[in-house]
Amino acid sequence: MPDANQRPIPFRGGGFDPRPRRLLPWIVFFLLIAAWQAASSAGLLPPLFMPSPAAIARAFAELWSNGTLVEHIAASLKRIVPGWLIGTAAGLAVGLAMGIFSAARAAGLPIVSALFPIPKIALLPLLIMWFGIGEPSKVATIALGVFFPTVIAAYTACDAVPRNLIRMGQSFGLPATDIVAKILLPGAMPGILAGFRISASVALLLVVAAEMIGAQHGIGAFVLAAGNLMQTDQLLAGVVMLSVLGLLISWGLGIVERSVLRWR
Questions:
Q1: Looking at the whole model, is its pTM more than 0.70?
Q2: What's the start-to-end Cα distance of the chain, in Å?
Q3: Separation CA 140–CA 214 (nearest Å)
Q4: Domains of the chain
Q5: Beta carbons within 8 Å of 199's beta carbon, 6+ residues apart
Q6: Confidence category of residue 183, pLDDT binned at 50, 70, 90
Q7: How many Cα atoms sit within 13 Å of 264 on the Cβ side?
Q8: Residue 174 near residue 152 (C-beta atoms within 8 A)
Q9: CA gap 182, 99 in Å, rounded
Q10: Which helix (H) or strand (E) segment is 258 a member of?
Q11: Distance (Å, rounded) from C-alpha 251 to C-alpha 96?
Q12: Which of 90-104, 147-161, 162-176, 230-244 has the lowest average pLDDT?
């Protein structure tokens, strides 16, 4: 006869069970903004060095209404889009070649490993000497910075595809092109798309750095000019715009990811 004081042992075989908390991020965000605003209103934060969220919002609204932010964002996007596309296309081709062909892997892996750690913004003066002070040098800097993360993402994603699936296709007599198209690429696609997110962030960082060094227009040039003039509310408004731009890029890549990976 079971003891009345005995309690059932909870099931422990479920593992981690993450559940979405849709409201919690917004609550935390608004609490942080409210605490920041309260500290600014109480005089705990000097407005010159840390303007209040209300001041940043006013500066953002003014810069957006008079077209200043739109002008600088358009200039930055004209550099990000071609740079990211060129770097991604080249990196994807090289990374897939390294993941498929042993000769390409043996030849490319040492070069990629040696050049990847170099800060690409440090090469901007050299690229300016090659391509001039105009747009090509900035686009080349972004493309070069995007190239290496894409190569590594594509190569490692191909390498992570289970070999038993490839051997199964070979045992059924599938040609190599079908194995690549129907087994390797679908299996590697989640890792490749994750690499796209990283490379998009790298492109955003590099365009800001390149514009701070040698540009009259662009969000990086605007942030640098606002900092030099001690207009910290406008500076942080530019930073907010960078955050919004990054979120929009991530949202767009998320749509692409859900569309491509519907089979999952």
A1: yes
A2: 49
A3: 14
A4: 54-260 (1.10.3720.10)
A5: 84, 87, 88, 91, 146, 149, 150, 153
A6: confident
A7: 10
A8: no
A9: 15
A10: helix 232-260
A11: 25
A12: 162-176
